[in-house]
Design a protein that fits this description.
The chain is of the alpha/beta class. The protein has four domains: 7-20 and 183-327, MoaB/Mog-like domain (Molybdenum Cofactor Biosythetic Enzyme, Chain A, 3-Layer(aba) Sandwich); 23-46 and 147-181, Molybdopterin biosynthesis moea protein, domain 2; 51-143, Molybdopterin biosynthesis moea protein, domain 3 (Molybdopterin biosynthesis moeA protein, domain 3, Beta Complex); 335-406, Beta-clip. Helices cover 19% and strands 30% of the residues. It is built from eight helices and 27 strands. The chain has helices at residues 7-16, 164-172, 211-221, 236-248, 268-275, 308-326, 378-382, 410-413; strands spanning 23-27, 40-41, 51-52, 56-59, 69-77, 91-95, 107-110, 129-132, 142-143, 154-156, 177-181, 185-190, 195-196, 207-208, 225-228, 253-257, 276-282, 285-286, 290-296, 299-304, 335-340, 344-345, 350-360, 363-368, 385-389, 395-396, 401-406. The strands form eight sheets. It has a six-stranded mixed β-sheet, with helices on both faces. A five-stranded mixed β-sheet has the order 7-4-6-5-8, with no helix packed on it. A hairpin with a 2-residue loop joins strand 23 (350-360) and strand 24. The longest helix is centred in the last third of the chain and has 19 residues, at 308-326. It is elongated. It starts with 6 loop residues before the first helix and ends with a helix. It binds adenosine monophosphate and magnesium ion. The site of magnesium ion has 5 residues, from loops.
Length: 415
């Protein structure tokens, strides 16, 4: 067991090779889902002027102390206009939601609390006076200047992930372009003579490339840009040609699946060693013990196992943390603790088992998804996460609690 590298040591060695990517400026709408590279400071107050939160009548609250009272209507303030005259004691201004309060007013009486009721129509005539039915206090139904944020405030700190609400705030601030961390570019190669493309008919001995698609999805899911290349044949020329094509895309990572495991007859390993420096690690985990990591033409390279589940799990364990570091994403990998529903046997390696979670009161119970074959991709569809049985154990018993690494992000899984 001593010749095996621990998962944590492997992740640490990988992360050493990655540095955060620099910033770039992109168009506002394109920034959704990206990571802000700089603090965004407001240059304006929001709202920029005190305004009404209701359709109604702007008044001096003091004038309503003896309600019901009747006030003279001296002004009309529709949305989008700005009052140039004040109201005087004993006067009111008809005002629409969002319209600025006139000088002299410090509260709004909603139309429902007047004798005017709601008049439909484009521009109901302005009444001469309005009956105020209820007393209001200063500030009632008024949104003060800077209620949302004030000029000078850091409204969005650097490294915020831009969600719909951040997009809206950036729009309110007038940012047509946004400084974001450059998106990691990841080239994906699938190797093996048995592989055919998705649009090809099956033939004896052939299977369709699925790793090219699961890896594409994982890369996109964690905010990076997947770049899929044609299938790589098990010949030195083809390996050289396709990996050169990958380098030409100027990726931040080159990811390949299959063809790098110890004991497989593969030209991949020898060609890659000519093009860069590849280390073959035997990592103390299951599934996915063999892992290649190094560089090709100076670009960090991961050679993941070929088995579809192993490829996904080793991506999650080794590649996902590297992507998060490159993209400066604050998202941590979501974990929960769950009790095993059944006894499970392992072989002493750290084991990531596919489990379905069920809530039982205030804790989770983990059920294995049945077959843990690393070729059974549909087991990943059933799984909510991967329960981690630590190294050194051979049996884990029903009722014992272990950490579960959730697949996907917390917000995608809901509760
Ligand atoms: P290898 O790492 O080349 O020994 O492949 C291990 C297993 O994964 C074999 O059963 C391969 O057929 C399978 N495999 C390799 N690449 C892919 C792929 N891109 N899509 C689906 N299965 C694959
Ligand atoms: Mg192969």
């Amino acid at each position: 067991m001593s010749d095996l590298l621990s998962v944590d040591a492997a992740v640490a060695r990988i992360l050493e090779r990655f540095a955060p990517l620099p910033a770039e400026s992109i168009e506002l709408l394109a920034s959704l889902g990206r990571v802000l590279a700089e603090d965004i400071r407001a240059e304006i107050n929001a709202p920029p002027f005190a305004n009404s939160s209701m359709d109604g009548y702007a008044v001096a609250a003091a004038d309503t102390a003896e309600a019901p009272v009747r006030l003279r209507v001296s002004l009309d303030i529709p949305a989008g206009s700005f009052p140039t005259e004040p109201i005087r004691p004993g006067e009111a201004a008809r005002i629409m939601t969002g319209a600025p309060l006139p000088e002299g007013a410090d509260a709004v009486v909603p139309v429902e609390q007047t004798d005017q009721g709601w008049r439909s129509g484009d521009s109901p005539p302005l009444p001469d006076s309005v009956g105020i039915l209820k007393t209001v206090r200063p500030g009632d139904s008024v949104r003060p200047v800077g209620e949302d944020f004030r000029a000078g405030d850091v409204v969005l700190p650097a490294l915020t992930v831009i969600r719909p609400q951040e997009l809206g705030v950036l729009a309110a601030l007038g940012k047509t372009n946004v400084p974001v961390v450059r998106q990691p570019r990841v080239a994906i190669l699938s190797t093996g003579d048995e592989l055919i493309e998705v649009d090809q008919p099956l033939a004896p001995g052939k299977i369709r490339d699925s790793n090219g698609y699961t890896l594409y999805g994982l890369i996109a899911q964690y905010g990076a840009l997947p770049l899929r290349l044609p299938l790589v044949r098990d010949t030195a020329d083809d390996v050289r040609r396709r990996f050169q094509q990958a380098l030409d895309l100027q990726p931040d990572i080159i990811l390949s699946s299959a063809g790098v495991s110890v004991g497989t007859f593969d030209v991949v390993r020898s060609v890659l060693s000519e093009m860069g420096e590849i280390n073959f690690w035997r990592v103390n985990l299951r599934p996915g013990k063999p892992l290649a990591f190094g560089q090709i033409g100076g670009i960090p390279f991961f050679g993941l196992p070929g088995n579809p589940v192993s490829a996904m799990i080793t991506f999650d364990v080794f590649v996902r943390p590297a992507l998060l570091k490159l993209a400066q994403r604050p998202d941590t990998i979501p974990m929960v603790t769950a009790a095993l529903a059944e006894d499970v046997r392992t072989d002493g390696r750290r084991t990531y088992m596919r489990v379905k979670l069920r809530r039982d009161g205030d804790h989770f119970v983990a059920f294995t998804t049945g077959t843990q074959s690393s070729g059974a991709l549909t087991s990943m569809i059933k799984a909510d996460g991967l329960i981690i049985i630590p190294e050194g154990l051979e049996t884990a018993r029903a009722g014992e609690s272990y950490t579960v690494r959730l697949l996907g992000t917390m917000d995608q899984r809901g509760s």
